[in-house]
Amino acid sequence: MCGIVAYIGRQDAAPILMEGLHRLEYRGYDSAGLAVVRGAALRLYKTQGKVRNLEHLLPQGLKGSPGIAHTRWATHGEPSDRNAHPHTDAASRYAIVHNGIIENAAALRAQLTAQGVEFRSDTDSEVLAHLIAAMPADTLEKAVRAALQLVTGAYGIAVVDAERPEALVVARQGSPVILGVGDREMFVASDAAALVRHTQSVVHLDDGEIAVVRADGFETSTLEGGPTVKVPLVLEWQAEALGKGDFAHFMHKEIAEQPEAIRRTLSGRLEPRFQTTHLGGLEMAARELLEVRRIKILGCGSAYIAGCIGAQLIEQLARIPAHAEPASEFRYRNPVIEPDTLYVAVSQSGETFDTLAAVQEVTRKGGRALGVVNAVGSTIARACGRGIYLHAGPEIAVVSTKTFTCTAVAFALLAIHLGRLRDLSTGHGERLVAALEALPDQVAAILANDAAIEPIARSIAGYHDVYFVGRAAGYAVAMEGALKLKEVSYQHAEAYPASELKHGPLALIDPQTPTVVVLPRDELFAKNVSTIEEIRARRGPIYLVTQPGPLAVAVDGLLEVPSSEPELDPILLNIPLQLLAYRVALARGTEIDQPRNLAKSVTVE
Ligand code: G6P
Question: Is 308 a catalytic residue?
């Protein structure tokens, strides 16, 4: 979604803010802006469109500090120059950047208008700038604190006061704010990606916290005024991980990084000696884990689909009933929370609002949640307090690739761990541990075969609608394949359980509607081959993602992956479908890293 960056220190803020905005652009990108303080005045620039539009607008060598900046993904008010952030009060003394939604903005706007305030944008955020200016307070901190008392909704904000440039004030309620601690300079961002070039030492604000940030340090307190103590966390990300390297797109780079990313997810977690896995962050004793009767996995988008693969793994290997559900649905249906159910929240960013709300619903009702999360120290990770970090490294492309794979790997680790506490045999555990060790090289082998995908991608690029079918865990692979394709190629792509094809979608199969069939060589192989025959009989083009071996049916394209242990096969079968989506999007000339209308981290409802 929207991104915030702020800086205070001895350097000029503008270059640091611009660099940070470029890093955050993947979160939301219909407009961008910045404000710096120079000589007791604000210098403010904002524009619709990409960060590079803002770059063109800035004067050469713009001086001043502190400064705040923003990339916007419109919620209130269309994308336009006037709705871009920062927003200021009437006297242009205070400037604010805001992520989130102020729910009582309409009422506050009406009150302020009645008092003679003239609004210059359609945003809810501008209300805050006027409120801050209207507060009788002798410090920026007091003014912001008083203004926030009047506001309901979600916010991550950064505010500067042109007349008091010695500090900037930030606050958080439901939308992330992270402080970066430098050497006599401080950075602020809504996402660690904007900080890592400058510092590895970060502090995550909690909901209901305010921070006064000066060049030489910061103080945090609650909205009510009680001081809070924050211990900085050391980021493990390296700045190089945030560049595209030799790749044309982040999506391609992140697909290619998967062998390394999987190695990091596995690192220190395999215990071949006991044919099991070790997960230090679970913080649940064996006895507690044995009491788990059901597992419910919650996530959104690809995180949800990775959860579907996770549920299958857990059910197969640990024989615990497990089920994945979109977190967005779960939180709204007043779910029954059971004490012997373990709830698992899956999120790359650790900031997805619906997933966080689902965790809060679970814990509020006394349930236990653990996180499968990539971003260390993120809101969902902290809300769960325990879980499995992916360590996949930063994922910048909006669509998830390496974190999808690493989430499935993390679930394999969890399933083996739970299984070995129950009935999973030493022999089976041993085979699975060995198969996980082999996984990075197998993924590398699939990636090396990228060229085989090119002609298939070119033919799929020519169609309007594409079906993806599979059975059991193969269906989850089909779901992710379809999601990936529609996100980056803008084609209508739909996943269906192969068994359900004849109950509806078969009516749509004709020579213009291709089907991608996920065909592992498992006990359902013959059934899937029958499905292929049914499609063939309607002259539907067929593309397979399968494993080596004899095949008695004619197909239009074949993508092969090596075999793993059957339970882990879905992880490998998904990889060519990522490359397929990427190559189809290339062929269709769509915007790959930042698909239209989508954002990497959806921090609003
Ligand atoms: C958005 C992104 C998806 C992502 C989902 C969940 O919808 O476009 O690619 O899978 O959010 O994100 P999370 O950070 O919670 O995994």
Answer: no
Exposed/middle/buried for residue 523 (C-beta within 10 Å: 0-12, 13-18, 19+)? exposed
Residue whose pair of structure tokens reads 């699939």 in the numeric block:
446
Of all residues in the chain, what percent are helix, strand and coil, respectively (each to 5)? 40, 25, 35
| Residues 517, 530 contacting (CB under 8 angstroms) | no
Residues lining ligand 1, CB < 6 A?
Answer: 300-303, 347-349, 352, 355, 398-400, 598, 600-602
CA distances from 204 to 211, 271, 424 (A): 11, 33, 40
For ligand 1, mutation pick of 601, 603, 604 (most atoms within 8 Å of CB): 601
DSSP letter at 210 equals E
3-class secondary-structure state, position 103: coil
Average pLDDT of the chain, as a whole number = 93
List Cβ neighbours of 301 (8 Å cut-off, separation of 6 or more).
400, 483
pLDDT band at 187 (very low <50, low <70, confident <90, very high): very high
Q: Whose CA is nearest to atom 8 of ligand 1?
A: 600
CA distance 561 to 548: 7
Q: Check if 300 is active-site.
A: no
Q: Which atom of ligand 1 is nearest to the CA of 399?
A: 9
E strands within 522-570? 542-546, 557-560
Contact between 438 and 488 under an 8 Å Cβ cutoff? The reply is no
Nearest CA to ligand 1 atom 3: 301
Atom number of ligand 1 nearest to Cα 403? 16
How close is the Cα of 302 to the center of ligand 1, in Å? Answer: 6
Determine the Cα–Cα distance for residues 446 and 579; give it in Å rounded to an integer: 10
Q: Quick check: 340 and 292 in contact, CB under 8 A?
A: yes
Q: Which of 298, 352, 356 to mutate to test the pocket of ligand 1 (most atoms within 8 A of CB)?
A: 352
Bond prior to 66 in cis (omega within 30° of 0): yes
Task: Quote the ligand 1 centre to 350 CA distance (angstroms).
Answer: 9
- Banded pLDDT at 288 (limits 50, 70, 90): very high
pLDDT at 1: 62
Task: Report residue 45's pLDDT band, with 50, 70 and 90 as the boundaries.
Answer: very high
pLDDT in the model for residue 28: 60
> Which one-letter amino acid corresponds to residue 180?
G
CA of 328 from ligand 1 middle (Å) equals: 12
Residue bearing the CA closest to ligand 1, atom 4 = 301
Distance CA 543, CA 13 (A): 52
Q: Give φ, ψ of 290 to 5 degrees.
A: -70, -20
Distance 236 CA to ligand 1 centre (A): 21
Question: Could you give the domains of the chain?
Answer: 3-241 (3.60.20.10), 250-446 (3.40.50.10490), 451-588 (3.40.50.10490)
Nearest atom of ligand 1 to the alpha carbon of 380: 15
Find out whether 541 and 515 touch, Cβ atoms under 8 Å.
yes
Q: 529 CA to middle of ligand 1, Å?
A: 33
Query: Considering just the CA atoms, what is the radius of gyration of the chain in Å?
Result: 25
pLDDT value at 25 more than 80? no
Work out the pLDDT band at 507, boundaries 50, 70, 90. confident
- Residue 375 CA, closest ligand 1 atom number: 14
- Structure pTM? 0.82
* 50 has pLDDT over 70: yes
**Closest residue by Cα to residue 16 from 63, 84, 86, 73:** 63
